[in-house]
């Protein structure tokens, strides 16, 4: 088992530096520096933010030099972890892969990093611990709330809903269809079909993974999916609904239907705060409406994770860098630049996020009992793929909600547990 | 004498093997060994990272009850059995036009071939906009002529057709091969037929078709293998523009091809054993169809005096 205590790393590095300095008569500290590679899936502005943090770390000490590499190809990431000597020492992914990758033995257990995990939300850590071992650490968390276009709601005289009954009423008032039956505005849209319908399932007291088992036919979950079909798709017909959503372009671009004012409301993650503001939108956000008052703000937590692969050539130095990334200042800087939620509860009240409008709605959900975390499960990727296929069949109108989710239940019998 | 001959032939064998070694080593390491290894992995529970565990024929048995396996096989065979004949028909017809004495013919030939050199991914993203149900050029043109304007990429009835359109967009490559074949047909055969009063259709059926039939056989086999392995076109067309990286593979999984499902099993679900078994099934399906085509070729391919 590798250990990562600061002292042992420091002693080791100092010893190596001293040997080199004495043996070679060298005076340059660069001989003792350990080079490590941080391969991250982010790119663009997010990648630049990471490079700033990497530069901060490199400037903060002389023992380790981190090189950042933007590599958004997850297949390549996985393939490089299959060799005996890895191409990178630290990388990132999402919580849904943790259990399967830990089971394959490609993630280094991180318990010995001695990081106090009590500051991380339980809903996040639940997804990163397998058999008592921590296999990844949360650099940011995400949850979904109801984001709305203020102008469209004001024009329709709709106040932001707090219950699913009010939500149904708002959808009806905010959906517009022209004389030819073409949808021109949708009351409630889904920027991510899977995330949106799962959120609705929780809003109806359901759970698509109840008891840490796939539960696609859970009554509350079925009711949530049925709610979307009955209130959004059926009134305009599946054909008109699909024609309308097919007309729009990439997510968070000028062709995004929410940006274009074609969706009045969407279930969205916290990153939308920064984006909407930069896009000059007049927008608001409220907790996800619940079927009952107790279910108000029901949502689920996804986690951006950092991990060290078992084939990392420099595990100890990677551990030192990982600890730095998890430190409150680095995490605060990272999450603020990306407009993501921090993974530390102690940062929830930080003034650093004050310049992100409405961000507190997502921040407050970090401490909410209605913020659900998923367990680390081997089958999660396959289960998600099957759910997405079923949702598609439902929205196409080619299968009923019950039949589509029953077919997922049937397939789930073959999942690896 | 015999010792000398023996030594000489041994040296010649060594030299021969040495000269052939770049191919032999390359073939052995890059082809033969992975093929044999995948055969073994298909009988195991294997994930790339852990040692394979022998499970016998369990992976093959699982396919029988896997509805997505059958869906992907159906889609792939649909693309193949519709796409290959249509590709051949368009190519042959187009080659005739390119063989005419037209003004600027060299330019037309270059334009027809142009899509074949456009990267598939770039072409896929271009066609995503061309086929956009509300704002795409394809539906705009259909509107001019008062035709139906399908929801190409979001209607399960049209998802497969969209993939076929993207695949047939590169028909120029096949067309140029046919053009070369048409150039090889002796002109005197046409002249003799014309003297006998044969119509254009008669000349095509009795002269052109038999004379280009060896090329047609080659085209069918090459195209069939390409269609059976299709991956990039449906993968790009079905890419969800929303938040998720990849949702269902087309509406109603209508673009889920065999290769995409194999990829999902291997690299998303880490079921490399199951994916290997799928690869072997695809090999045998391809082999069976190829043998069927070759068997039928005896009845319709004309090799002249050869």
UniProtKB/TrEMBL annotation, chain A:
Q: Which Gene3D superfamilies match?
A: Periplasmic binding protein-like II
Q: Which GO terms describe its cellular component?
A: ATP-binding cassette (ABC) transporter complex, substrate-binding subunit-containing
As given in the record, the signal peptide range reads: 1-32
Q: Please give the superkingdom of this protein's source.
A: Bacteria
Q: Which residues cross the membrane?
A: none
Family statement drawn from the similarity comment of this UniProt entry:
Belongs to the bacterial solute-binding protein 1 family.
In Swiss-Prot or TrEMBL terms, this protein is called ABC transporter substrate-binding protein
Originating organism: Devosia epidermidihirudinis
Automatic annotation (TrEMBL), chain B:
Tell me how this protein sits in the membrane: Multi-pass membrane protein
BP-aspect Gene Ontology terms: transmembrane transport
- Could you tell me which CDD domains the record lists for this protein? TM_PBP2
Q: Which is one Gene Ontology cellular component term of this protein? A: plasma membrane
Q: Which SUPFAM superfamilies match?
A: MetI-like
Transmembrane segment boundaries: 12-33, 77-98, 110-130, 157-181, 211-231, 277-297
Could you tell me the keywords of this UniProt record?
Answer: Cell membrane, Membrane, Transmembrane, Transmembrane helix, Transport
Ranges where the ABC transmembrane type-1 domain occurs? 73-293
Which PROSITE patterns does its entry note? ABC_TM1 (PS50928)
Gene3D superfamilies hit by this protein: MetI-like (1.10.3720.10)
Where is this chain's protein located in or outside the cell?
Cell membrane
Similarity comment: Belongs to the binding-protein-dependent transport system permease family.
Name of the protein in question: Spermidine/putrescine ABC transporter permease
Q: Which organism is it from?
A: Devosia epidermidihirudinis
């Amino acid at each position: 088992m590798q250990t990562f205590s600061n002292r042992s790393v420091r002693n080791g590095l100092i010893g190596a530096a001293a040997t080199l300095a004495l043996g070679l008569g060298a005076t340059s500290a660069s001989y003792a520096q350990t080079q490590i590679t941080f391969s991250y899936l982010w790119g663009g502005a997010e990648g630049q933010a990471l490079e700033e943090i990497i530069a901060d770390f490199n400037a903060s000490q002389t023992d380790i030099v981190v090189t950042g590499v933007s590599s958004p190809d997850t297949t390549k990431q996985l393939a490089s972890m299959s060799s005996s000597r890895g191409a990178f020492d630290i990388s990132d992914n999402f919580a849904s892969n943790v259990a399967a990758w830990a089971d394959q033995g490609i993630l280094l257990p991180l318990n010995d990093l001695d990081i106090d995990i009590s500051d991380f939300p339980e809903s996040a850590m639940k997804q990163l611990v397998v058999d008592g071992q921590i296999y990844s650490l949360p650099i940011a968390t995400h949850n979904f709330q109801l984001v709305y276009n203020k102008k469209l709601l004001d024009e329709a005289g709709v106040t932001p809903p707090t219950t699913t009954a009010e939500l149904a009423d708002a959808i009806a008032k905010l959906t517009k269809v022209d004389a030819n039956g073409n949808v021109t505005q949708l009351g409630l849209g889904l920027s991510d079909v899977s995330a949106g319908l799962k959120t609705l399932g929780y809003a109806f007291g359901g759970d698509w993974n109840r008891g840490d088992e796939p539960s696609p036919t859970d009554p509350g979950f079925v009711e949530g999916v049925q709610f979307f079909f009955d209130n959004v798709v059926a009134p305009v017909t599946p054909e008109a609904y699909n024609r309308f959503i097919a007309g729009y372009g990439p997510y968070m671009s000028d062709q995004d239907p929410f940006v274009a004012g074609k969706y009045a409301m969407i279930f969205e993650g916290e990153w939308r705060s920064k984006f909407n503001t930069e896009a000059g939108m007049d927008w608001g956000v409220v907790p996800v409406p619940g079927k009952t008052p107790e279910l108000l703000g029901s949502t689920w937590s996804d986690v951006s994770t950092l991990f060290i692969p078992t084939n990392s050539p420099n595990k100890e130095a990677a551990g030192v860098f990982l600890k730095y990334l998890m430190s409150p200042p680095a995490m605060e800087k990272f999450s603020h630049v990306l407009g993501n939620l921090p993974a530390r509860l102690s940062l929830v009240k930080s003034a650093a996020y004050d310049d992100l409008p409405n961000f507190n709605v997502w921040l407050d959900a970090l401490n909410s009992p209605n913020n659900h975390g998923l367990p680390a499960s081997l089958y999660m990727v396959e289960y998600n793929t099957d759910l997405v296929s079923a949702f598609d069949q439902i929205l196409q109108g080619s299968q009923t909600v019950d039949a589509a989710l029953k077919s997922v239940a049937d397939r789930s019998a073959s999942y690896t547990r | 004498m015999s010792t000398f001959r023996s030594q000489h032939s041994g040296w010649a064998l060594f030299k021969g093997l040495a000269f052939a070694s770049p191919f032999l080593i390359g073939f052995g390491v890059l082809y033969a060994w992975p093929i044999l290894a995948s055969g073994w992995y298909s009988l195991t529970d294997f994930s790339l990272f852990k040692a394979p565990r022998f499970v016998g024929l369990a992976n093959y048995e699982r396919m029988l009850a896997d509805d997505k396996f059958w869906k992907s096989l159906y889609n792939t065979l649909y693309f193949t059995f519709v796409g290959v004949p249509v590709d051949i028909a368009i190519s042959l017809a187009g080659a005739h036009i390119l063989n005419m004495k037209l003004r600027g013919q060299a330019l037309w030939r270059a334009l027809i071939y142009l899509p074949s050199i456009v990267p598939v991914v770039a072409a896929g993203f271009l066609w995503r906009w061309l086929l956009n149900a509300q704002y795409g050029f394809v539906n705009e043109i259909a509107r001019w002529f008062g035709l139906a304007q399908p929801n190409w990429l979001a209607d399960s009835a049209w998802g497969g057709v969209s993939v076929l359109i993207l695949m047939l967009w590169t028909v120029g490559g096949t067309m140029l091969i046919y053009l070369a074949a048409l150039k090889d047909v002796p002109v005197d055969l046409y002249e003799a037929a014309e003297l006998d009063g044969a119509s254009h259709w008669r000349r095509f059926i009795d002269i052109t078709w038999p004379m280009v039939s060896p090329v047609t056989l080659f085209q069918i086999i090459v195209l069939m293998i390409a269609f059976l392995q299709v991956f990039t076109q449906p993968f790009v067309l079905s890419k969800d523009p929303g938040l998720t990286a990849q949702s269902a593979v087309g509406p109603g999984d209508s673009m889920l091809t065999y290769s995409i499902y194999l990829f999902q099993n291997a690299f998303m679900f880490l079921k490399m054993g199951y994916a290997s078994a799928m690869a072997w099934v695809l090999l045998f399906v391809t082999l069976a169809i190829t043998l069927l085509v070759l068997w039928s070729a005896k009845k319709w391919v004309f090799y002249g005096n050869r």
